Amino acid sequence: MNIAKVDLNLLVYLDVLLREGSVTRAANQLSITQPAMSNGLKRLRDLFKDPLLVRTSEGMTPTKRALELQPVIRDVLSKLESSIQPETDFDPASSSRTFRIMTSDYAESTLLLELVGRLGVTAPNITLDLITPSDVTFHDVEQGKVDMAINRFDELPLSFHQKVIWYDSFSCVLSATHPLAQRWDLDNYLNAQHIWVSKTGFGVGVGIDPNEVQKLGWVDAELTKIGKQRAIRVFTRHYHAALQIAKTQNLVATLPTKAARLFKDDPTVIVKEPPFDIPPIALKMAWSALLHHDAGHIWLRRLIADVATEMSGT
């Protein structure tokens, strides 16, 4: 094959076709007609001497050859897009850009709360669209439809760029009138009733089985290591809800310290260190290679890092 005869648009077509898995959706994505996309697929099949996408009961399914080509073509197009993108300065003071950020409730109530305050001073016309983890997928971030994901991730695709925002310890929040407040030790902690709170990763969450201790996360994993188990009475994905329940009911919330500090000035609440060791967790931000060289995105990443550094020092 003579590379000089390859139409670059065909590689763009193939990238979108493999991403969307549909001629119609790919055509809509590229703002071309469906016949034009179908003709492009025909030319791609001739070019690679492979059907590339085959209709099955599950829709258009990529062939083995297509799956091999997908990361190569994505990498080539990503580098090309970065190379030809004009190096324009980004002026946050005058920009009216909207940044879409997938964020957990934990990050939203701590880091993002401070970030909004900073934006009000340095970039008053910028808008943040904060999206929950259940609303997006890795695919949305990879394709740049979401500017950034901020959460605690067990794992991320290798194609993502990522940066640790901070490491956070754990604290326990309970009402000042809770009987445990004056008898704080491991035995009494285990005899108390607890609130579980967590939401990591992407996609729609599923219900919790209290008996599947190994799936309950950091706190319960560490208790299991010492042969203990706590009695969880409320499961929630919202840190503010966990804090309010702990404040008004005789339940204990064990959660990241920066979230617990939201109640540090409330005299009706007590914040204590856990009576057993829990390793710190890492809050990360992750983004697509497609946005890595974008001037506005670079500015936002630096601002988030600065805000996180200031918060970690307090």
Please describe the structure with a list of short key phrases separated by commas or semicolons.
single chain; about 325 residues; alpha/beta; Arc Repressor Mutant, subunit A; D-Maltodextrin-Binding Protein, domain 2; 3 domains; five-stranded mixed sheet; 12 helices; about 20% strand
Plain-language structure description:
The chain is α/β, with parallel strands linked by helices. The protein folds into 3 domains: 3-84, Orthogonal Bundle (Arc Repressor Mutant, subunit A); 98-165 and 283-312, 3-Layer(aba) Sandwich (D-Maltodextrin-Binding Protein, domain 2); 170-279, Periplasmic binding protein-like II (D-Maltodextrin-Binding Protein, domain 2, 3-Layer(aba) Sandwich). Helix content is 40%, strand content 21%. It contains 12 helices and 12 strands. The protein has helices spanning 8-20, 23-30, 34-48, 64-84, 105-109, 111-122, 138-142, 186-191, 218-225, 239-248, 257-260, 295-312, and strands at residues 53-56, 59-62, 98-103, 127-131, 148-151, 161-168, 170-175, 193-197, 231-236, 251-256, 269-272, 281-287. A 5-stranded mixed sheet has the order 4-3-5-12-6. The chain has a 5-stranded mixed sheet with strand order 9-8-10-7-11. Strands 1-2 form a two-stranded antiparallel ribbon. α1 packs across α2 and α2 (23-30) crosses α3 (34-48). The longest helix is centred in the N-terminal third of the chain and has 21 residues, at 64-84. The protein is elongated, with a radius of gyration of 24 Å. The N and C termini lie far apart (61 Å). 28% of the residues are buried.
